[in-house]
Structures are given as structure tokens and as C-alpha cells.
């Protein structure tokens, strides 16, 4: 006997054919996320319009009205986030083609701590996608902000989604193509990121989050960042060493920017600062600070 599995009947096509259809109508359709993930080109073309993209971005970084019922308050932002994160080239390209949308996303970090955890997770998810799919453009934009960008992330280190975004920035490189030549380009991009981060004082700023007067959340997230960065830089340095040996290059892997960042992390000076941050403080060392530093 043939059994047909139940499925959601999509009304997306009739909606998209409707003259002057509003984004709110599209977002109410239950199958909209599924259709976007399935790369429905008519839907993606609609979402990639400048006016619609502006609304999608605005939804994920703007506090919803407190007058809305609690269960509905973040539905729009959640759906908009899922649509932007559907890995559609037209959408990721639209997000980075002009600075104004990146500015809108970046300005979210300028809010007072603590950031809304749900909006932070939406923001982080979209930015992590851009770090993978539009890494060149995002790197150029973020590096133009100088130390301010890192300072904003450190300011919100108590928010785990921000910590996740910082890790994605450290490991930022395009993942769409393969082959030896592209691997070399990836390695070049990774060393550019490491060089930039080394210049921003990232290591010292992360160490500052371990101070005994910082919150347990800041201490834990700061420590986790340091651990992830050390592991990544070690892998990068090993890959650079393998590449130089394979090419019989006379240049040492230790001269790469990633190794420079790793040297900062593993230096005796950093170890001393780590102990000082863990143990200093008016009230003496905090249990969470010692645990994070360990």
C-alpha cells in the first residue's frame, strides 16, 4: 500500500503573485522558512529587494514592542533571522553590498549591556554566516572600525552569542570553494585576520574579562574565547609549517601573523597577566575567575 506523508501546503506562490504583497503577509506563511531553505527563487528575489532586506535587518536588531503578547513578541525577528541565514547568495550579497546594512547590524553592538539575549542570538547567527560566505567584504568592513569593534565585543562578553561571533571573526575565512589554490587563499586570509587582531590588543582585552571584579559570564566567555583562539592559531601554524615544508620554503611558519598572535597568547607575559587577573581584586580572587583562568 502506498502511503503519502502529510505535508504543509504552501501559499507562498499565490502570495508572491499578489500585487503589492507586504512582508508581514509573507512572514505569516508557515512554510516561508522551508521555502527559503529550498531556494525558492521567486521568494528569494522578493526578499532580496532593498526595501525588504532593510525590514529583515531592522527586525533582528530592534527591540519588539512590549505590548505584544510574550509568545508573539520575537516571532517576527526569529523568522527574519532564519530567512537571512538561509544561505541564499542574493541575500548575503545584499547584506554586504552597501555599508548601510552592515552599519545597521554593527550599531546593535553599541547598545548598553546587557544586550537582549534573543536579539543577540539572531544578530550573531547572521553575522557568523557573513563571516563564512562574505568573509572578504566583512573583514574589510570590520577592520576599518579599528579597535572600536573589539572593544564593543569585549564590552558585551557576558553575552554568549557575542562570544560566538568573536570566535567566528577569529576563524573567518570563506568555505565555499576547494582545491590547493583556494586553500592557499584561505590561509592568506586567515593570516590577515590574525595580523589585524594582534594589532587590536585582543589578547590583553580578553584577559581583562577574567578579572575578579567581572561577572562569572564574562569570565567564562572570555576564557572560552582564549581557548578557542589558541587551538585555532595552533592549527593554523601547523598548516603553515606543513605548507612551507611541502614547498621547501625557507620562510619559517613562526613568522606568520597567526604565529605572532599565538606567541602573544602563550608568552610568559600573558601567563603573568592571567594570574594577576585571576588573583587580584579588592575582595580577593573570585571562585569563578580562578575557574575560568584555570
From TrEMBL:
| Single GO MF descriptor | protein phosphatase regulator activity
Keywords, A to Z? Cell cycle
Instruction: Reply yes or no: does the keyword Cell cycle apply.
Output: yes
Note the Pfam families from the entry: SAPS
Cellular compartments per GO CC: cytosol; nucleus
Superkingdom of source: Eukaryota
NADP as a keyword of this entry, yes or no, is: no
Q: Which family does it belong to?
A: Belongs to the SAPS family.
Q: What is this protein called?
A: Fes1 domain-containing protein
Q: Which organism is it from?
A: Macrostomum lignano
Amino acid at each position: 500500500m502506498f502511503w503519502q506523508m502529510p505535508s504543509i501546503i504552501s501559499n507562498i506562490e499565490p502570495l508572491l503573485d499578489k500585487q503589492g504583497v507586504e512582508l508581514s503577509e509573507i512572514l505569516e506563511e508557515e512554510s516561508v522558512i522551508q521555502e527559503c531553505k529550498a531556494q525558492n527563487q521567486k521568494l528569494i528575489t522578493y526578499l532580496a529587494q532593498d526595501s525588504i532586506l532593510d525590514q529583515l535587518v531592522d527586525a533582528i536588531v530592534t527591540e519588539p514592542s512590549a505590548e505584544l503578547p510574550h509568545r508573539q513578541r520575537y516571532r517576527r525577528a526569529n523568522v527574519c533571522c532564519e530567512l537571512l541565514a538561509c544561505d541564499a547568495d542574493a541575500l548575503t550579497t545584499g547584506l554586504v553590498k552597501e555599508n548601510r546594512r552592515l552599519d545597521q547590524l554593527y550599531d546593535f553592538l553599541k547598545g548598553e549591556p546587557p544586550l537582549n539575549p534573543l536579539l543577540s542570538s539572531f544578530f550573531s547567527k547572521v553575522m557568523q554566516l557573513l563571516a563564512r560566505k562574505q568573509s572578504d567584504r566583512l573583514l574589510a568592513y570590520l577592520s576599518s572600525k579599528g579597535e572600536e569593534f573589539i572593544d564593543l565585543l569585549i564590552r558585551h562578553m557576558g553575552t554568549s552569542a557575542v562570544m560566538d561571533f568573536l570566535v567566528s571573526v577569529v576563524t573567518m575565512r570563506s568555505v565555499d570553494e576547494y582545491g590547493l589554490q583556494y586553500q592557499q587563499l584561505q590561509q592568506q586570509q586567515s593570516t590577515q585576520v590574525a595580523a589585524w587582531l594582534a594589532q587590536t590588543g585582543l589578547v590583553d582585552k580578553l584577559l581583562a574579562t577574567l578579572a575578579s571584579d567581572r561577572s562569572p559570564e564574562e569570565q567564562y566567555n572570555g576564557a572560552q574565547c582564549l581557548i578557542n583562539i589558541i587551538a585555532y592559531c595552533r592549527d593554523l601554524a601547523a598548516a603553515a609549517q606543513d605548507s612551507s615544508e611541502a614547498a621547501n620554503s625557507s620562510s619559517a611558519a613562526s613568522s606568520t601573523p597567526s604565529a605572532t598572535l599565538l606567541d602573544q597568547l602563550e608568552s610568559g607575559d600573558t601567563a603573568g597577566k592571567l594570574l594577576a587577573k585571576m588573583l587580584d581584586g579588592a575582595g580577593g580572587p573570585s571562585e569563578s575567575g580562578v575557574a575560568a583562568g584555570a
